Amino acid sequence: MTAIAQTIARPWTSPTLGGITVVVALAAILQLSIDAGLVPDIVVARPLDALAAIGPLNRDMDLVGNFFLTFGMTFAAVALAIAIGVPLGYLLYRYDILGQAYESWLAAAFSAPIVLLYPLFLVIIGRSHLTLVAMAFIPCVIPIIIQTRQGLLSTPPTHINVGRSFNLSERDMFWKIMLPAAVPSMFTGMRIGVMYALVTIVAIEYLIDFGGLGRIVSEMYFRFDIPGTYASILFVVFVSILFYASLNRIEKWLRPI
Amino acid sequence: MAEAHLTASSGARAPSWTWTPNRIRLVTVIAAIALWEAMSRSGLFYRDVMPSTLSILMAVYAELTSMAFYGHLWMTFSAVAVGFVVGSLLGNAAAIVLGSRPFLRAAAEPYINAIGSTPKVIFLPIIFLIFGIGIESKMAKGALSGFFPTVFSATAGVLMMNPVLVRVGRSFNLTRWQMLSKIYLPAMVNPIIVGLRLGLAIVIISVLIAELKFSQAGLGFQLAQYYESFRIAPMYAMIVIIFALAALANWGMTMLQQRANRHLSAGDRKAAVGGLSVN
User: From the CA of B278, how many Å to the nearest CA of chain A?
Assistant: First the structure.
């Protein structure tokens, strides 16, 4: 009896189990409501149907291949943003007047609706993967530039004094003192940049029916395949969680305190 | 010449002309316009792909003097306003509940983080299925997008609150409503405003994106129409207007934030501004 009571009480003592229990219970209620006709199945897919649709969706639409396509474009945009953003961040740190002039512009640009520039890119570059990479590059590079500058600016003075007491050259000072001190802040910029690159690529894929995962969601909706639409959305959520969790883990590893 | 000599000989005197951030910005704007104009006239792009700045300015004027523009503006404004109010109210209410109940927070956090980091545009098909393709779906998408920045910022605000304040409230036997209005909300003014500022920017983007596809009105819809009919100068004009309006909204929220933080010291004010955040 005690064992049964403990099993029943367990979800309410562990937050993780509690969260999973609530999600499963909500899914079960939704399933039953749709079966009972309380919620129309042309609006909401049965949770079990959506899960079952992932297999056929993978066969029809090559989910894994499209995941790698979206991932590849995100990776290209991020690599380009790091290659350009880190030197630019350093430039804005090295020449403080430039930093003062442009940092507020960069922050303003970051909250601007950059995705809406896609017609401009389509007109200039055309409907290609390069457009997606170029569009994702912009929101990705901005936080990298800002966080690189901020990281370099916030190097502890003690570290700089230690470097000076060792008579380090300016070059060594940068590579051995400034850059390692700025890495956690730079990584925060990269984490934000990666998430924005992914969001932008998926959004534009959805909007222009071109590319990887976003296009699949759009196509499933266009076919009015309700379980397929929900399955594809679940898959994109899963991919985002994967990105988010991996980046958080790397950031914690880089910033142990 | 004599002036140059004077400046050189009196070392302590400041040079007559130096680069200042504002001068750099001005030069950048002029250089960007000159570069655009040069590219427009270079013949490197198809005709009309890069119209001259003058034709874009004329298209901006034509847009601002047309009645149809204000109809679209009103639709976008309504969707942004409703989405922002609903999303931020729900976000702040959820933050107070989550911030003050550690068990609930630990249980809900992974799911909120997961959906918060997902591109909200992919939920549009579900929103269309539930709300149709009218303005209601744009409002719903705005509310969904506005919820996350506010909940993240305000939850952090509750967690960073001085626990003494909560204990003082409890020792006075305050009711739940009094705790909320006299303790939690006054202590959370800054994180709430940071969340609202980030939230408004995201709601604007979110509504405009929702208007691009399966839509009948709004600035985003008009932009997509111009693109699809290859009316390039009006398309650029619409982008310029949208960016200016978004910047205006962001500036307004920044002013509101500065007003709320006017009692803080300069250093605290800078720290309270709230940086870039994907969440």
Answer: 6
